[in-house]
Amino acid sequence: MEQRGRPRISAESLEPMLRATVELIARRGAASVTMRDIAAVANVSVGRLQHHFENRSKLVHKAQEWYLQSVVDDMAVIAAGSAGPWERLLDMCRYASHGGNRRQRVLVWIDLLAQSQRDAQVQLLVSEINARWCAVMEGIIAEGEAAGAFRPSLGVRETAETLVLLVDGIDVAALTDPGSVALPDQRLVAAAEVLLGLQGTSPADS
User: Fold this and answer.
1) Gap between the Cα atoms of 16 and 78, Å rounded
2) Phi/psi-derived region of residue 46, left when phi > 0, alpha when psi is between -120 and 50, beta in every other case
3) Which of 20, 66, 83, 198 could cross-link 87 (Cys pair, CB 3.0–4.6 Å)?
């Protein structure tokens, strides 16, 4: 509920502050980011940040949520496309490997995971984001199975969860040792073919 006397603020007006916070988290880690740092990058006053977010902790968590949910939104748009389920799943793998600012995405996610071990509210946020990401993957696999294009031996949900885990694992590997993960989208595709029962078939026709 808005406090009396405060003008309504649009989400678009808050975006530069949230984006600046995300950039700083990726550069320094959430624990090292101050309100003064964020204000300088966003070109606003500390008072304005406090006006909208009250304190540093609320701003940092809001920025992490806004950014990571937007990543899942991008995946959901790809999954809802008009191509066949296999081609859309390939597009999701490509986006996971190369789309957007991958390094920033991974750094923000890892930072949030670390915080979740000490903060129950952050743990809930992590669970919510992960559940949404898995649900997007599950939806496209279920669609492919219903059309006879996929034959997931582990079941739809378990296959979706496994692919999401692979995306996360490859992301972390690419961040910690870039040379160890060559052509990450090809590795995801190969794993998806196995998990979806597409070995020896022509998945491109699905």
Assistant:
1) 25
2) alpha
3) 83
pLDDT values of the chain reduced to their tens digit, one per residue, 206 residues:
344 444 555 557 899 999 999 999 999 999 999 999 999 999 999 999 999 998 999 999 999 999 999 999 999 999 999 999 999 998 888 887 776 688 899 899 999 999 999 999 999 999 999 999 999 999 999 999 999 999 998 999 999 999 999 888 887 777 777 665 555 567 788 889 999 998 766 555 44
Distances (CA, A) of 147 to 137, 140, 143: 16, 11, 6
DSSP 41: H
> Hey, what's the torsion of the CAs at 33, 13, 72, 103, to 10 degrees?
-40
In single-letter form, the type of residue at position 71 comes to V
Using CA atoms, how far residue 145 sits from 148, 175, 185, 188, 191, in Å, is 5, 33, 22, 19, 17
Give the span between the Cα atoms of 78 and 148, in whole angstroms: 21
pTM, to two decimals: 0.85
Question: Which CATH number applies to 63-199?
Answer: 1.10.357.10
Contacts of residue 81, defined as CB under 8 A and 6 or more positions apart, other chains included, come to 88, 91
Length of the chain: 206
Phi, psi of 203 (to 5 degrees): -60, -25
Q: In which residue are the tokens 């959901």 written?
A: 76
